[in-house]
Amino acid sequence: MISVEDWALIRRLVADGVPQRQVARDLGVGRSTVARAVASDGPPKYERPAVPTSFDPYEARVRQLLKDTPDMPATVLAERVGWTGSITWFRDHVRRLRPEHRPVDPADRLVWAAGDAAQCDLWFPPRKIPLEDGTKVLLPVLVITAAHSRFVLGRMIPTRRTEDLLTATWELVQELGRVPRRLIWDNEPGIGRGKRHAEGVAAFTGTLATSLHRLRPRDPESKGIVERRNQFFETSFMPGRTFASPADFNTQLAEWLTIANARTVRTIKARPVDLVEVDKAAMLPLPPVAPVVGWTNRVRLGRDYYVRLDSSDYSVDPALIGRFVDVTADLRQVQVSHDGRVVARHDRVWARGQTITDPAHVAAAKVLREQYLAPVPATAEPDDPLVRDLADYDRAFGLTHGSDEDVA
C-alpha cells in the first residue's frame, strides 16, 4: 500500500498530463498501483479485517440488558453475563454499544418572539454576605432575563419563600415597566412542584394577566438563557468585589447590569439595551391594581407584645395586647396594624432568630405594668345606704380600740 503523500503526488502528476507509465517509473511503483490511485475516490487507508473476539459470545446478552436498562453500569453487566476477562476490555465494548440503546433527547433551537417570555431563576453568588448580627450567609439572587432582547434584571432576596419570590418579581417587573406574557420557571419549591403552583402564585399571575410556565424535570435547555447569565455573573461580576450588606450587593449589581445590558450578546449579535424597547412594546402593560405580595398574617398579640416573621420577633405597641393585629412585610420593612391604624413599623432584618425592639414600646409597657400593679381606690359613694365602711365591722368584733356602743 502506498502512502497518502504518494497517492496525492500520483494524482497530481497524472492531472498535469504525465503518462501513468512514466509516473510509475519515476516513483518506483507498479503501473497497477498508479492506475488504482487515479481511479480511487479517497486516500488509501489501512483497514484491519474483522476477526472474532472474546466479547462476541456475550454481545447479544449485553445488548438485551442495555435495551431494558440503558444506564446499567458495566461492572453489573459483566456480573450478569458471567464475564471473567479484563474489565477494561469489557468496558470498551459496553461504551461502544451503550449509545445505540440510550434514549435520545434532542434539543431544539428555540426562537423567542418579542414580548413573549422572560426566564426566571435563582442564582446563589459564591460568596457569603454580612448580615445585621455579624454572621455571613449565602443568599439567593432572583434573576429575570427577557428572552427576546436578553435584557437582565436581578435582585438579592432574604429567602426562597414564595412571599419573597413574588415580592421581588413584582419589583423587577415594575423596574422593567411592562409584563412579559410568560414567566418561565423550573421546579423551584417557592413557585410550585408537580402539577400545582405554590399558594399565592396563581393570584399573582392572574393580577398581572400573564401565565407562569414551569418546566418539566431535566429540561435545562428551555431556560438556558438565564442559566448562561448566571454563569456570566460569576465570571464577570463577582471577581474582585466585596460586599458590606445585601443592600450594598444590590447597589453594585444594579450598577453593573447597566454596563452588562449595553454589551453585545454573541448569540443575537446585538445589545440588549437596543432591543429591550421592541421587546417591551410587545409585552403587557402593568396592571391597574398592584398584586398582593409579601408576608401577611393576622395574630392575637400576646403578653410579651412581639410578633414573629421569618424566625425574627418584632415589638408592637403593648396597648394592643389581647387584640388581633395584621402583620405585613416586604423585602425591606415590617409593619403591624390594627383596624387600619399602623401600630408598629420596623426595618426588616435578614438575619435569623433576631429580636427587634422599639424603645417606645418598652416604655409604654412599663407604664401599663405600673398601672396594673397599683392599688385600685374605692369608688363607692359615702351616702349609698347599701355600702358600709369596713371599719365598722372591725369595731363590732373588737378588733379596734372602740367599744360595742360605738357601733350600736
Write a structural description.
By secondary structure, the chain is of the alpha+beta class. The chain folds into four domains: 4-39; 56-101; 117-281, Ribonuclease H-like superfamily/Ribonuclease H (Nucleotidyltransferase, domain 5); 295-372, no CATH class. Helices cover 37% and strands 17% of the residues. The protein is built from 13 helices and 16 strands. The chain has helices at residues 4-15, 20-27, 31-39, 56-68, 74-81, 87-101, 162-176, 201-208, 224-237, 246-260, 272-281, 359-373, 390-396, and strands at 117-123, 129-130, 136-137, 141-146, 152-156, 182-185, 192-193, 196-197, 211-214, 295-300, 306-309, 312-315, 324-329, 333-338, 341-347, 355-356. The strands form five sheets. Strands 5-4-1-6-9 form a five-stranded mixed β-sheet, with helices on both faces. A four-stranded antiparallel β-sheet has the order 10-13-14-15, with no helix packed on it. Strand 11 and strand 12 (312-315) form a beta hairpin. The radius of gyration is 40 Å and the shape is elongated. The N and C termini lie far apart (149 Å).
